[in-house]
Automatic annotation (TrEMBL):
Species classification: Bacteria, Pseudomonadati, Pseudomonadota, Alphaproteobacteria, Hyphomicrobiales
Main subcellular location: membrane
GO molecular function annotation: electron transfer activity; heme binding; metal ion binding; oxidoreductase activity
Entry superkingdom: Bacteria
Gene transcribed to yield this protein: ccoP
One GO BP annotation of this record: proton transmembrane transport
Function of the molecule: C-type cytochrome. Part of the cbb3-type cytochrome c oxidase complex.
The family this protein is said to belong to: Belongs to the CcoP / FixP family.
Compartment list: Cell inner membrane
Name of the molecule in the record: Cbb3-type cytochrome c oxidase subunit
Matching InterPro entries: CcoP_N, CcoP_N_sf, Cyt_c-like_dom, Cyt_c-like_dom_sf, Cyt_c_oxidase_cbb3_su3, Cytochrome_c_Oxidase_Subunit
Amino acid sequence: MSEKIIDEPTGVETTGHSWDGIAELNNPLPRWWLYIMYATIVFAIVYMILYPSVPLINQATPGLLGYSSRADVEGELTRVAATRAELDQQIASLSFQEIAANPTLSDYARRSGASAFKMACVQCHGSGAAGSQQYGYPNLNDDDWLWGGSIEDIFTTITHGVRSEDDADARSSLMPAFGAMGMLNRNQISDVAHYVLSLSGSDEAGDAEAEARGAEVYTAQCAVCHGVNGEGNQSVGAPRLSDPIWLYGGTYEDIVRQVSNPHMGVMPAWSVRFDDATRKELAIFVHSLGGGQ
């Protein structure tokens, strides 16, 4: 029997092993720590037997309990779909006033509309619904509406679209290309642009002579749609010109370009893709952004 060797500085027995004069102390792990380690090993073995765990060529071992996280997710999605289907049926069958009178339906409709907006509308109108003057996508947060900003008006626009070839009832308006068609010459277009700038109170306005000449051109060519004072006409989709909100930009150059050869934006008819409930939810969400009438 070998003699025990005690490390003098620590007073702990050594194992008899040493490296470069450094002795290995015999300090066994605490019993409680070992028991926990053994328990985790046993738990891991039991888990591997009961649940899917060991990857094979085509799939993991199924486990004795037959548990599947995918099945859990599918079941949860089925449950949510069933709940939503019931609420969607109510929304589809009720008027906007009846939906607004029901706090649960109203909140659900707004949240569902926000989800649908993120899926189908942000590509043009932006994640914050601010639109883009560069491409003529309307800002849905302000109170300027080409075709009306009530929930019913918004629903109609969403349903049938604007200049959409997929729906015979699509919103449609036509602004003549006054320059491209030779209806107005360059000087007349320049004058009417100055006059329109004065209607909106733009900082670029100030050429009184051009504005006076432009007023005559405007009265003869533009007032029938945009109104005598530039107030617009929602029944024909003619924008209001007497405020600083613009669809394609409000600088002198932007207005000249639009009068000369106007842009004609297109919005899909969402009746082709979305059911009544989803379109109602979208209308409620857009109306809730703050610019609805």
